[in-house]
């Protein structure tokens, strides 16, 4: 197995990675998402081990994603329409790290520009085919079902 001990920053997509990809729309037009608590515990364990975790999402539910990030003590959060690579490059400059020290978990084609350049790329079991073909690791669990925890336990924090 490849050694991923040099990863300093793990980037996560939201829809289809931290969630099951469903968009739940209420009668009043508001949305809600279901996050997996096991992913949250894994994120905390990773942070405790000194690896920073960030969210880069091209979604529109900024306050919802920010609220989940706040629960987990995540300070690097971007939700918007900017290119994910542009956001990541700014963060890497701030942290003084290179792409080989970045891991990315994504599930759809808008994640590929980062996944193709990162030192580690992973995707949930139900990611789209194009992502599965490019990912270093295709996880066994689906998005929203603990796939981030699977990566953390089996690869990033594995002895």
TrEMBL record:
Gene3D superfamilies: HAD superfamily/HAD-like (3.40.50.1000). Keywords: Hydrolase, Magnesium, Metal-binding. Pfam families: Hydrolase_3. GO terms for molecular function: hydrolase activity. SUPFAM superfamilies: HAD-like. Belongs to the KdsC family. This is HAD-IIIA family hydrolase. It comes from Imperialibacter roseus.
